Amino acid sequence: MEYLDFELPIKELEDQLDKCQVIGQESDVDVTETCKQINLKLEETKKKIYENLTAWQRVQLSRHPNRPYTLEHIKALCGDTFLELFGDRNFKDDKAMVGGLGKIGDQSFMIVGQQKGINTKMRQYRNFGMANPEGYRKALRLMKMAEKFNIPVLTLVDTPGAFPGIEAEERGQGEAIARNILEMIRLKVPVIVVIVGEGASGGALGIGVGDRVYMMENTWYSVISPESCSSILWKSWEYKEQAAEALKLTSADMKRQNLVDDIIPEPLGGAHYDRQTAFKSVKEYVLKGYNELKDLSTTELVAQRMDKYSKMGEFKE
Known about the structure:
There is one protein chain. Helices cover 49% and strands 15% of the residues. The chain is α/β, with parallel strands linked by helices.
């Protein structure tokens, strides 16, 4: 397990617990009471830290290297039923965007999401989860295929943003994202979105329009990352913590502003501490959302989605 800077008190206590257990195994000394006391202190420390997380600390948790990524969620949701599909039928296959057909319970879904890598080689292969235009065009191709065969769509968002390279701009990055937003708004099948990690800028919006949008507890969703916001406003990344607070990017902030529909709870410490519980929660929310939408007519579905997004941004003095 890797630890973030604010998790170091937990690491110290877990190291103490490990040493205590080793002493008990390698000697005749009864360390039961000592281990119990350390365990109690460990639980108290975890609660104190994780129940009072700042916005920046939640951003850090969303990027935790042990956090499950999109393909791990798909494996947990679909088991061996997932069939990955490739290519945008125009330029090439974008490895940062994955998609395909899979069954969750007894229901088939078209699942699309950004995939980061678990090590340096895989991160380069997946372009750090930053999709090119062909990635968004692949996503749209799969969603239109789902519409054709009346299959609901599930998208899993986890990206630091769409790839900002010159070649991406040359191939129409902005147009590809805008096209996806337009088409997803009027898609004639239920669309469920789950933010499982980072939800940054247009890169997230390109697959982020849905009838139900859920955020996992320790994720963020914003027009810009805290670091980029800090560099624009203060000409330095040193103010990223203040930027994170000002952006109101946490799941609680987004729910309060009615920009997402619900928050999926995570195990204490984050999804990486208890993956199976986290996967189970995601599955429950996906199926709950689908059951709320499945009996709506196409007209009702599209009308409700359009109404939902047209109301965003309204406020009263």
